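$ ./design --mode recover --in tokens.txt
reading tokens...
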């Protein structure tokens, strides 16, 4: 309950709101208290201003005159229900009041303070003899010689003011409690709407981490949480698909390794236990050499794929003639095409601009693309290799076209993905084209594939022409992301 997001919400949100509500309640209570007491004080001041008409300049002729005049003023006071007027003599004893009582000693600190001031005014907030909270205002009356004759004291109970303060404070507390309750409830349901799906996502992620790629998160909301649920579900699908591809890849590689090894072992045992005739011997040695080359090619593909996955696939970039590598690749596969009854045609141009690349890696790409064309072309089929310069975008294009089985439209976008094989009947690891695509990308080029089932496939390799001016420009990035060698 008080861990994780709940704890952070309690501290960062609910705690702040609670602190603000408490401050506002205290502030409003103090403000109402100040307002109510100021209202009482203002009323006392306003009524005390009327003494200017009773005692001009606060002066009376004698004590008797003061007592008589003040007593008459107290008797005629029109606001007896709001406050009490007390007439005090020079010793602070109450002579008479607006309520008709007199001749008593009262606690009047304001009278004592008023005697000490030049204006003769003083105010007191406290409790009277009965313990009631009051506010009192005393005005000292003097004779012409400045001798104190007595004082007129206004006394108002603060009971109503305190009740108003208490009522407003309770209202503020109630409103604060309502706000806190609303915030707590809304926060609870909001946090629950986050924590509950997150917990489910965590549980599902743990299942996925343990290898259960069929686990799914139920999408509860159409918001960021919902988007995260979709992302986790999509991730599980991708992991499931990759797991299947990986298993298929392992199965295919195991088969690809087992087949040549079985052939090599079989012919080696045949030659070990008896010397065959020359024809059989040559045939066996041919099979061993052929299958060994096949194994070597497969191992090299696996090594390149491993480097590709770990980011260690590097290029030895240099100025090179692309035609030399294409010629060699075609020459290496020409004999195989003849032996399989297929026609490998190559339109050899006279010359091509220099490119900047890794000659071994590019030859590997050409061999892979032409080899794939041979694999998927039936006996009697035709594979054409063409090289030309595209003057528009300053590139060289190598086009390998065949009239083989072709690729289905749904498989075409995936053929360059690792482990993917569109045709499971044809031997191959499914990683050669992925490695070739990465090599061409490292040359700042691209591989584009067009295909139609039962019509054929056309693979176009695009490689930028070497720009010496750009290579020598310090601000430019050389092709392949590597510095050209010094001539």
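writing sequence...
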């Amino acid at each position: 309950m008080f861990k994780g997001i709940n704890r952070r919400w309690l501290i960062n949100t609910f705690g702040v709101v609670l602190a603000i509500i408490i401050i506002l309640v205290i502030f409003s209570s103090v403000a109402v208290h100040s307002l109510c007491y100021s209202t009482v004080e203002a009323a006392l001041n306003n009524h005390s201003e009327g003494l200017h008409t009773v005692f001009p300049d606060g002066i009376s002729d004698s004590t008797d005159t003061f007592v008589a005049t003040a007593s008459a003023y107290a008797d005629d006071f029109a606001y007896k229900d709001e406050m009490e007027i007390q007439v005090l003599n020079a010793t602070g004893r109450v002579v008479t009041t607006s309520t008709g009582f007199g001749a008593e000693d009262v606690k009047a600190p304001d009278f004592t303070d008023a005697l000490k001031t030049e204006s003769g005014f003083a105010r007191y907030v406290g409790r009277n003899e009965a313990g009631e909270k009051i506010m009192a205002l005393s005005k000292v009356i003097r004779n012409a010689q400045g001798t104190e004759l007595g004082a007129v004291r206004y006394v108002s109970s603060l009971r109503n003011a305190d009740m108003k303060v208490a009522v407003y404070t309770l209202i503020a507390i109630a409103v604060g409690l309502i706000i806190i309750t609303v915030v707590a409830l809304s926060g609870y349901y909001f946090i629950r709407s986050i924590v509950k799906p997150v917990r489910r996502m965590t549980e599902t992620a743990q299942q996925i981490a343990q290898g259960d790629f069929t686990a799914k998160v139920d999408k509860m909301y159409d918001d960021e949480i919902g988007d995260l649920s979709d992302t986790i579900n999509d991730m599980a699908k991708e992991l499931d698909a990759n797991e299947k591809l990986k298993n298929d890849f392992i199965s295919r590689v195991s088969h690809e390794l087992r087949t040549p090894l079985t052939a090599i072992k079989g012919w080696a045992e045949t030659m070990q236990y008896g010397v065959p005739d020359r024809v059989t011997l040559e045939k066996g040695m041919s099979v061993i050499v052929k299958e060994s080359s096949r194994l070597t090619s497969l191992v090299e593909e696996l090594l390149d794929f491993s480097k590709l996955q770990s980011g260690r696939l590097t290029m030895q970039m240099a100025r090179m003639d692309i035609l030399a590598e294409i010629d060699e690749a075609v020459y290496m596969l020409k004999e195989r095409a003849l032996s399989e009854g297929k026609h490998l045609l190559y339109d050899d141009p006279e010359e091509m601009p220099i490119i900047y690349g890794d000659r071994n890696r590019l030859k590997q790409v050409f061999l892979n693309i032409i080899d794939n064309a041979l694999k998927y072309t039936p006996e009697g089929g035709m594979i054409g290799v063409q090289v030309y310069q595209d003057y528009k975008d300053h590139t060289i294009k190598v086009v390998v076209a065949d009239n083989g089985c072709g690729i289905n439209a749904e498989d075409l976008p995936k053929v360059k993905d690792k482990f993917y094989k569109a045709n499971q009947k044809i031997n191959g690891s499914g990683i050669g084209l992925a490695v070739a695509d990465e090599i061409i990308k490292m040359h700042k080029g691209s591989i584009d594939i067009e295909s139609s089932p039962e019509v054929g496939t056309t693979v176009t390799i695009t490689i930028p022409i070497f720009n010496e001016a750009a290579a020598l420009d310090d601000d430019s990035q050389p092709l392949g992301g590597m510095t050209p060698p010094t001539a």
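exit 0
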